[in-house]
Each structure stands twice: as structure tokens, then as C-alpha cells.
Amino acid sequence: MLADRCDESIKPSAKCKHPDRCFWFHPLQLIAARMYYLLGASIRALSQTITRSGHCCVGADLFADWDTSNYCDVKKIDRFESAAELIKQSPVEGCVVAGGIENKPALLAQIADSTNMTGSSVSAIANVRNPFVLEKSLRASGLETLKLRRTIPSRDVGWVIKPFCSVGGNQVRLLNGRNGEWINTHQQYLQQYIAGTPMSAVYVSSPRQCLLIGVSFQIVKKTRYSDFAYVGSIGPIKLNATHTNAIHRYGQVIAKEFGLLGWFGVDFVKSDDEIRLLEVNPRYTASMELFELASADLRLFDLHLAGCGKGCLAVPKLEYSDLMIGKRYVFNSSMVATQVTSRMFDRLANGAGQAWRSRSDIPWANDWIQPGHPVCTVWAYGDNIAEVETQLDDGVEQVHDLLRGAREEHQARQNQPGTAARGHNQHE
Questions:
Q1: 51, 116, 154, 221 - which has most CB atoms within 10 Å?
Q2: Is 2.40.10.10 the CATH number for 19-118?
Q3: Average pLDDT of the chain to the nearest whole number
Q4: Structural class in CATH, domain 128-308
């Protein structure tokens, strides 16, 4: 079963009904609670992880979803750069970043000038995100890596075109072999393509050691924007000792060679019984919340803070639930924008804050979901990957039904005499 604890959708200041197993605060933690600024494409999961360790947070992301506001005072922004001044004005202990920020070294340097960057240094992040620097370092340590190229070879098959600044597999596509295909060598590169099972590993490192927290299966789909879009995770998964040791070795070498501190993630592909590295994400990753949900005792932010210090990490007893947990993003597959109706919001929000959550990353009523943009995240639980995938597929279809219903309801209102279109967004 899932970890037995309270996971109510309440603000940290509210009184919990289950203080003995509270997701939020324990009495002793209240004394040492600190405020952190969170920044990323979406900070909902990160804000839950921060509060799970007994701290408070404010932050900014691209959505400012309803359930994020239950954990964090969040502001919606259109550009990450606009958060720099917000962080400078905030009396916080430090800044913690999620997805998207690792590709902006200039912004990271600007933030580091005004507050403590809780994690790896700006130079370490920039170096490990350079695929050619990473490849050279791994090969020098005797680890296998996928081949890289800066230009299209004469035999242009078996390669993937990747942006240097890709997030979640966005704009990653398979080189199709058509004559005349080209790449922008300033923004893109080629990585060897190997078919296999995509996986992601989570680590926490300190100057003295690197812990492997766990491994999850990645759900990758072809979308209008990518041939290899990351849309979710299922885990924790158990691998044999050979694969586990290989993944742990990758993390140890990367942390040591690049000086990574705190949490980070690495994407792999398992092919022909071998583990091959795809890329490194030196920040809080989308799969990390799976391991906290599967464990009653894991406090990732506590480990992250310890890793950023100068001492040794206390090795946690990683006992995970027997159930597999899955999350999957749902996107607006329509060619038109869809407004979230009150009925759709109520259906999406139902059960979003519970331990056995069915949905998260919930938009506000009256928000507009643009074509191809994320709507929410659906969750599922089962004994194996196939069972979880089936439930996730059902959850995705339920959200698509809600989207279709919202469009029909909006159209019906538009057809009523004297009814004007509503474009109100509660965060603007």
C-alpha cells in the first residue's frame, strides 16, 4: 500500500487533522522552518517536497495552478527572466530551481548574485548540460556514452536531432534521412539513436558521496512538437544488480567530475541489456515526487540540503511501497483553445490533494488552455507497469472528455443572444 500519512490539500498555516503523519509540519520542524523561492516551468511538485520537509516557499512558474497555491504563494510569469527581480526582493533563505532553468546560465548567475543558489553551482550546471563536455568526461572515466555529432553525416540514419536547451524532450526529432535536411549547429546537435526502454534515475550528492535514490520508467510519446516527448513516469522500478550498479556508477562519476551538489536526475535508455546515458538534469526533476509518495520516511529536500553542505549524507533506509505509482501529463490535443469551466474545474480538483491523488496541476476555472499546452497531470497505482499504463490511459481519456464538454458548454454560451466571450484569467 501507499505510505500511510496525511496529505491534505491545505495551506501550511492550517491545522492538520493528522499531526502524527502530516505531510506538512512536525512540531520540532516549525522551529527551524525556512522560506525558499522556487522557480521553474511548474513548481507544484517541488513545493510539495519543500513543505514535506517542514519548510515554507514562495515562487513563480508558467502556470500558477490551483493546487500549487495550496502549498506555495505562487506567481504566474511568462518569462523566467522576469522572476529575477522578484527573487531579489524576497527575504528568502535561497532559491531552488525546477525544470527549464538549467538551460539559462545567465539567469542562474543573476539569481546567484542576489541570493543563495540551493544546489549545484552555475558553472557546474552549465558544464554538465553541455553534451560534448559530458561525453568527453564520461569516456575519460571509462563509461560508455552515445555518440555525438555537430553536423549531419553522409549516412544520415540512426541519429536524433536535439536542441542544446531542450526540456522534457521538446523539439527532439529523429533524423529522417531526407536529402537536404540540416541543423542549426549553434542551437542543435546530433545524438546517436538506440531503440530501448527510457528510464530516469534520481540521485543526491555531496562533496564526499553520491546516493542513488531510485529509478523510474519514462513514458515517452510522439507529439506535434517532438518525436520523443516526455509525458510521465512510472516507478519506483527494480532492476537487477548489474543495471543498478551501472546506474549508480554513472551518478558517482558525474557528481564527482562536475561537482554536482544536492539532487539531480539522469535519463537513460536500456537497450540490449545495456544502460546508455542520454542527458543529465542538475535540478529537481519530474520523477522525484514518485519516490516520496512511495516512501513514508523519505524527505528529499532534507537530503538535498545536506548534500549542499560540507558533511556526509545520512544514508536513508529506502523502503518503497509494493505498488507502482504513475503520473502522466495531459495536453489539449484540440486545434483551438479551451476555457476551463466551473464544472470542469470541479471535476479536475476532486481528490487532487489526497494521498491517493487522481489528478494534480489543476488549472483555475476560467483559465484558457492553448492548443498543445498541458491541462493537468493524472495519476494511477497498480501492481505492474502495464496495469498502471492502462489506468493512466483511462485518466487521460477522462480529461479529454472534460475538455470536449468544456468546449461544448462554451459554444452553447456563445450561441446565446447577448453573451460575450470570457477571457478572464485569475492570475493576470
A1: 51
A2: no
A3: 86
A4: alpha beta
